Amino acid sequence: MPPTALSILIVFLPLSLATIGGGQSAIADMHRQIVDVNHWLTATQFVDAFAIARLAPGPGSLLATLIGWQIAGFWGALAATVGIFGPTAVLIYAVSSLWSRYQGARILIALEAGLRPVAAGMILAASYVLIQALDGGWFARSLALLSTALLMLTPVNPLLLIGAGAGCFVGLHMLALI
Amino acid sequence: MLETKAQRPTPLQLFLIFSRIGLTSFGGGLSGWMLREFVQRRRLLGEDEFLNGLAIAQALPGVNVTNMAIWIGYKLGGRAGAIASWMGMVVPAAIVIVLIASAFASISGYELSHVALNGAAAAAIGLSLAMGLTAARRVPRRIFPICVMVATFIAVTVLHWPLLWTVLGIGSLSVAVAYRQA
């Protein structure tokens, strides 16, 4: 397909529903569609965009926005953003409103009680995977654990903590420790 | 019941809160930040309400954090709140990512910025882990829910199950048992 806003929208709309548990699960398919099938970007361009999306703040699925931007500028970015976030946004909106209407129904109570341990396991698993993926060895892992303890035990401002983490690493790097 | 906790935020306030969360989250951990902002600092939601929303945001397709923004926005401000929260989460961060990509095109390979970002990411993981531990602490201390939590953790980290099958498999079993007990 030619790289128009409409064709970008058509590619990203179905990918939206594949983003269960976070955007990571859709990335492989995104790569296939953008690089292999439609040749809108090269594999290198795609990996660069992925790295930037990891570094940038905000939801990781903004990778789609960036890809849309690189393919077709503003309208490409808009089409990709609407495509990747739109369908699931409508879905959760519908669920939110149903939930408020039928609050206290047995099936909803069961869903809440049943899904909570699954959610807890998934968040712990995500933290584990992130810690494994950190560069910087034991310094980085200790910093992650220290930060966890501070967040749980003190009312520290997370932004300050993250700034301190960055400063701490720059300092260690200058001392040639990492 | 919500009104007794604190003043409900306006859609504009929701937009601004979520913009700040979206723009200051490096390396994930956004839901941890939301817990801190909405439950612990502003007391707009109870911890239970928040964790219920999180469980549903994770089980449905869609990015957890944007799902969570819509869930919280709807609870606190209805339709306008949901739209404002979603826009706050996505629009400013989308502009920033395009700006960063343009900047990177000119300075790519600058090592110190990579080191600083890595340090920021290490500290940011604390938000995610603290959130996980808070959620784990609120899982009922009975054998079945704890097994469900451990099985989910193992399915994702050791067995590398796709999240879809983890949610459908373990999640539906867990919901079915909860339904029988409800």
How would you sum up this structure, described in words?
The complex is a heterodimer of chains A (178) and B (182). Chain A has 7 helices and no strands. Chain A is 79% helix and 0% strand. Chain A is mostly helical and 178 residues long. In chain A, helix 1 (5-16) packs across helix 4 (63-101). Chain B is mainly α and 182 residues long. Chain B folds into 2 domains: 11-138, no CATH class; 141-182. Chain B has helices spanning 11-23, 30-41, 47-59, 64-107, 111-137, 143-157, 163-181. The model of chain B has no long low-confidence stretch (mean pLDDT 85). At the A-B interface, helix 3, helix 4, helix 5, helix 6 and helix 7 of A face helix 2, helix 3, helix 4, helix 5 and helix 6 of B.
Brief digest:
The complex is a heterodimer of chains A (178) and B (182). Chain A is mainly alpha-helical. Chain A contains seven helices and no strands.
Key terms:
heterodimer; A: 178 residues; mainly alpha; flat; B: 182 residues; 2 domains; 7 helices; globular
Measured as a percent range, the helix fraction of chain A is over 70%
Secondary-structure-derived class of chain B: mainly alpha
Largest interface: A-B, 95 and 101 residues
The portion of residues forming beta strands of chain B comes to under 5%
**End-to-end C-alpha gap of chain A:** 46 Å
Q: Distance N terminus to C terminus of chain B?
A: 23 Å
**Tally the helices of chain A: what do you get?**
7
Largest sheet of chain B: none
**Overall helicity of chain B:** over 70%
Quote the average pLDDT of chain B. 85
Helices of chain B, by number, come to 7
Per-chain topology:
The complex is a heterodimer of chains A (178) and B (182).
Chain A lengths: L4 H12 L7 H14 L5 H13 L7 H39 L4 H28 L3 H17 L4 H17 L4
Chain B lengths: L10 H13 L6 H12 L5 H13 L4 H44 L3 H27 L5 H15 L5 H19 L1
